[in-house]
Design brief:
The chain is globular and about 60 Å long. The chain is mainly alpha-helical. Helices cover about 60% and strands about 0% of the residues.
Length: about 190
Amino acid sequence: MRLACLNGMIMNEKEEFKIKFLHKKSRFMLDVGMIIQTLQQQDVLRESRDKLYGFVHHLKNMEINPDKALALACKMLGLKFWAKKHEALEGRELYHVIRKSPDYMHFSQLFRPIAHTYFRELGYNAYALLNILTDLISHHGTEIKKLKNFSSRADYFYTLPAAEMKSFVNLAQNPGFSLENYLGKYKLIL
């Protein structure tokens, strides 16, 4: 539930459910508490909670190379720092295009202090990276939406980190998985 998560992770799963109800602002927490208590008694939340705990446990055990964290974040958020005319570029040429991009400079300045905090607190793992992504979306969303090539569809924006992380985890479990192949051109982002 979003109220319990300061950096706003939202999972967009078919198995999950939505609760909508009218409430008075002064009684909101009490009303939510009563609804959750009722649902727990009916085991409606237990299965979703167990899936989420399993996902988080897996993320905590999945190491992330801190040198690749910015590249992973950019790939997962779909941030490209090169124009279509640069698609054919490779290696050093593309690296220089990326490094000169004002969007790259702005995003990396947002990313680095947040990443430092989460990696220090949670370790170099996929769980920390997910927290970085959700923090960026929740607290710096307006700035991220201004970056070129970023989809700002409201229904997509807040579910993006969890959906992309889940996809990454599924791919990474394949025996032939290669981080370099997964990153593609994003591997040039440092």
